[in-house]
Amino acid sequence: MYLTNGYQKLNIKLYRIMAKATALEKINRIINYTNRRLAGWYQNAEKDFGVAGSGTCYWDGENIVIIFTEDDTTQIYSIPYYDNEPMDYYFNVWMEL
Length: 97
What we know:
The protein is α+β, with helices and mostly antiparallel strands. The protein has helices at about 1-50, 90-95, and strands at about 55-60, 65-70, 75-80. It contains two helices and three strands.
């Protein structure tokens, strides 16, 4: 019984570690995706509308943060991270500003 109980505790601990790693991998994918979309957005904005700008995205531990500069004005937009949102959610919310 003791070995089984210890094994169960080990499995629970490993599950929590894997769940945390999986969550961080998802956040990294969201950050990479959003940064690619921001780069494309500002390339098109300059080409189509003459708006010089750039943007970058990162995770602060709780929020997805987008820092963007348009025509020498820098702004910061922070969106709470929700695990169940699709990858494009954060860019799309920012885009609708």
